[in-house]
Write a sequence for this structure.
């Protein structure tokens, strides 16, 4: 039985009115994503494997809202079906019964991502070949090139993750991604509703060294407890991702509307035959109506590199928040926060890609000294890849969650900054 049928209902009567939906998240971010979805009124829960968040729905509105409004998801998919397949004949027979025409218009281009673990059908290229044949017969689609990968977060539809210069992705130009997972002979097939990965808001076209993804920047803010009601500063802001995401959060701007005119980016679900344009317009209108004016608190981004600050200002303008974030060229030693308490949220270098061991440790020591002297009582949240470097800051930090950044295992840690005399020997 696939997720669109239940009881004795005929397929045509049940299609798309009881969907199994899934938001794929970066490692460790599923609890934050589930909380975001529940805030939208979607009864979601992290899956046992920690790969994302699932929910059942009889309304496409939840798919639209999750794509447009959730800050910590990489993509949103709908389960087309799940079945046991130990032979290619079983695979083709059962896959052919799934409701492909609900997702694929005749002539549409499709791309497959196939992974297989501990299954008799272990040859992913052969699995993709059989499924493409099924899709051609069932929905009259065309092959846009098979994508084979083990990484659910780094490959977009047809391998295309870049946004256009306008900051928008045309869904019509991107192949429909079908995600196929075989595990212990159980085959689960999902249809991607996002298109380009959701961290691609469209504003970040100018980059500094070792940038943090938008989804991870949002996760840092949410994990820190900051909700836009107190000052925020990032003294190592690079190209500005954390302050920009903070401004979006403070103003309740949905990540899919992160541009000056609050026009939504494009999504794969817009090409589904069941796409409801009126419902989508209603979702977008609702999200726009929630946008607040100026946040009412100061949001600062500082960096000693003038080129990084120039990039940050350009990115903020593309996100439509240039008036909400104050960027300036400023070294750590000149940290000067506004009256607080507030939050420092930053991503210091780990010494893996940027800097050397000695210089990086010196930066952490300097961050700690400046924070304890200039921002006592504020909270500090950082991405930490090395406990020894984090301890050099001299702030008692507690782990909020574990994730990865650019393939490097990291922890989001946070703590209250003591006064300069609060920690000795640092």
């Amino acid at each position: 039985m696939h997720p669109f049928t239940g009881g004795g209902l005929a397929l045509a009567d049940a299609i798309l009115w009881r969907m199994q939906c899934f938001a794929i998240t970066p490692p460790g971010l599923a609890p934050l994503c589930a909380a975001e979805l529940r805030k939208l009124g979607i009864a979601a829960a992290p899956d046992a494997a920690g790969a994302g968040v699932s929910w059942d729905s009889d309304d496409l509105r939840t798919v639209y809202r999750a794509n447009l409004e959730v800050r910590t998801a990489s993509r949103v998919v709908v389960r087309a079906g799940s079945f046991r397949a130990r032979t290619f004949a079983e695979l083709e027979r059962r896959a052919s019964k799934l409701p492909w025409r609900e997702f694929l218009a005749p002539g549409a281009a499709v791309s497959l991502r196939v992974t297989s673990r501990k299954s008799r059908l272990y040859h992913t290229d052969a699995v993709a070949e059989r499924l493409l044949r099924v899709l051609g017969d069932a929905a009259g689609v065309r092959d846009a090139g098979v994508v084979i990968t083990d990484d659910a977060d780094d490959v977009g539809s047809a391998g295309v993750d870049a946004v256009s210069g306008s900051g928008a992705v045309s869904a019509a130009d991107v192949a429909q991604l079908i995600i196929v997972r075989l595990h212990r002979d159980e085959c689960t097939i999902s249809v991607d509703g996002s298109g380009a990965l959701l961290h691609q808001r469209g504003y970040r076209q100018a980059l500094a060294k070792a940038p943090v993804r938008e989804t991870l920047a949002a996760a840092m803010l949410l994990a820190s407890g900051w909700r836009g009601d107190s000052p925020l500063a990032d003294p190592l802001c690079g190209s500005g991702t954390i302050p920009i995401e903070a401004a979006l959060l403070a103003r309740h701007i949905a990540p899919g509307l992160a541009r000056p005119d609050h026009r939504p980016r494009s999504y794969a679900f817009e090409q589904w035959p069941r796409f409801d344009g009126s419902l989508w317009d209603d979702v977008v209108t609702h999200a726009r109506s929630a946008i607040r004016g100026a946040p009412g608190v100061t949001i600062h981004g500082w960096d000693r590199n003038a080129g990084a600050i120039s990039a940050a200002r350009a990115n903020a303008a593309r996100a439509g928040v240039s008036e909400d974030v104050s960027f300036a060229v400023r070294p750590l030693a000149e940290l000067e926060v506004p009256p607080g308490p507030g939050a420092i949220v930053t991503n210091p270098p780990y010494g893996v890609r940027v800097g050397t061991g000695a210089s990086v440790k010196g930066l952490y020591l300097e961050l700690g000294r400046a924070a304890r002297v200039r921002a006592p009582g504020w909270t500090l949240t950082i991405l930490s890849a090395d406990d020894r470097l984090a301890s050099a800051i001299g702030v008692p930090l507690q782990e909020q969650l574990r994730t990865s950044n650019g393939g490097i295992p990291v922890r989001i840690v946070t703590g209250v900054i003591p006064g300069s005399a609060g920690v000795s020997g640092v």
